[in-house]
Amino acid sequence: MTRLRIAFSEAATSFGGQEQYIFKVMRGLRELGHEVQAVCQPHAKLAQQLQDDGFTVHTLLTDGFVNYTKGVLRLRRLFAEQKFDVVNTNSRRDTMLVGMAARLAGVPLVVRSRHLAKRVGSLLSYTVVPHKVIACSHYVRNHLIDRGAKPEKIKVVYPGIDLQNWPQGSSVRAELKLAENDVVIVCVAVMREQKGHRVLLQAVEPLIRARPNVHLVLVGSGSPLMETLQGIVAEKGLARRVHFLGMRQDVPQILNGSDIFALATETEAAGMVFAEAQASGLPVVGTRVGGVPEMMVENETGILFELRDVNALKTALQKLVDDPGLRRKMGTAGRQFVHDAHRFDLTSMAKSTEQAYLDWLGQRNWKKS
Q1: How far lies 4's CA from each of 51, 59, 77, 293, 360, in Å?
Q2: Is-same-fold flag (5-160+345-363; 163-339)?
Q3: SS3 breakdown of the chain: % helix, strand, coil, rounded to 5?
């Protein structure tokens, strides 16, 4: 095999979905035999996570003109001396610093990854600095093209989940003291307004009032929305039927113990939580926005509804709540959709990324030194 020397960069200091993606793809590429390093800010949580996992991490500050100039000069030397084959940036700030240093050092391939659904502002970090772009969904790719990026420059690589080690079993029903015949609707999302928790509550409330065995489980945290929602639930007298679990590390097990997954998100670049829910055999209900439709087969593994349409969401949930056979049928189809085609597993993500690098390097007449 061709062993590549690859550097990933990220300017953010938090550890959210984008940073989790970087961590996973770096591990996947390392398992394929490549040498993978990272460039992060010194106080970044990603830097610590990578160092704990045995990666070499180069740290530098990215804010301000002085730090920018020092960083470009330092990384230019590093990339040239260590003869990196690929530098993969992940946000605008690190693209303009790390990507520019890579171009000045003559790195054969500079790639920018795009993980977000929000509107692209400046195209410089997609058109001028990188040679190529990886998008996390066709929705994101199409948005970049609409903004002026060249179609031939962009490849889609879906984020991955660890399907080979997907946990079995669940204790969430015992934890919440739920009966076997209770129907659990679960939502996993950070508690921000754009994730649509208010819409979901409005849709589920009449189902809870009409059916004594329906429960809503909300996994995720975030102030002040979580406290606001808890107040609304208490005021409506639904506290025994709507369960706030906060941030959890056992999300797959919680999904395994649920019956239906629902997320009324207003924007989503890919929506990998839908793939996770299907990996646990759940029918999924989601908004027809962003990359969500790519995460399911409509009317086979899940149901789509229009943005903020409370009645449509209620109808979809009611259909699944009242029909156990349909839940099983869609859940089985969803598990097959995710597992059998290997669309969203970690190995596929790493191999697709590797193949993109090799194809693009070949187009640039690269030869391993």
Answers
A1: 20, 21, 19, 34, 13
A2: yes
A3: 45, 20, 35
Spatial separation of the C-alpha atoms in residues 149 and 13, rounded to whole Å: 28
CATH code: domain 5-160+345-363 is: 3.40.50.2000
CB atoms within 10 A of CB 215: 24
Q: Is the dihedral of CA 184, 271, 20, 117 positive or negative?
A: negative
Token pair 């962009």 is found at 154
Scored b (16 or more CB within 10 A) or e, 337-360 reads bbbeeebbbbebbbbbbbebbbeb
Four-residue CA torsion sign, 246, 252, 254, 258: positive
Domain boundaries, the chain: 5-160+345-363, 163-339
Residue 188 and residue 200: Cα distance in Å, rounded?
A: 12
How do residues 282-302 score in pLDDT, each as one tens digit? Answer: 999 999 999 999 999 999 999
What are the start-end ranges of the H helices in 5-120?
17-31, 45-52, 65-82, 92-94, 100-105
pLDDT single digits (tens) 59-80: 999 888 888 899 999 999 999 9
Per-residue pLDDT tens for 1-56?
A: 789 999 999 998 888 788 989 999 999 999 999 999 999 999 999 999 999 999 99
* CATH code for the structural domain at 163-339: 3.40.50.2000
